[in-house]
Design goal:
about 80 residues; FMN-dependent dehydrogenase domain-containing protein; FMN-dep_DH; oxidoreductase activity; Aldolase_TIM; about 50% helix
Length: about 80
């Protein structure tokens, strides 16, 4: 993803794109520590779909709750 703010250098006092653009993280979150790293890198939101599907595929709702509780504990 490339974001460019060409007018930032030409307009005095213009807001930089990274200052207003939220950063969402959706890749390889397998543990709470992965989510923590993304949040430390200024992510506004971390998707945990992999954890959800992983837990649910192992033991349906019980596995889902267990996996998410583990990730929350790690966070």
């Amino acid at each position: 993803l490339v974001m460019s703010n060409h007018t930032g250098g030409q307009v005095d006092g213009a807001i930089g794109l990274l200052d207003i653009m939220p950063f969402f993280f959706d890749s390889s979150v397998r543990a709470g520590s992965d989510a923590f790293k993304a949040l430390a890198l200024s992510a506004k939101l971390v998707f945990v779909c992999r954890l959800y599907l992983w837990g649910h595929s192992i033991q349906c709702d019980v596995g889902l709750r267990h996996r998410l509780a583990l990730a929350l504990g790690q966070l």
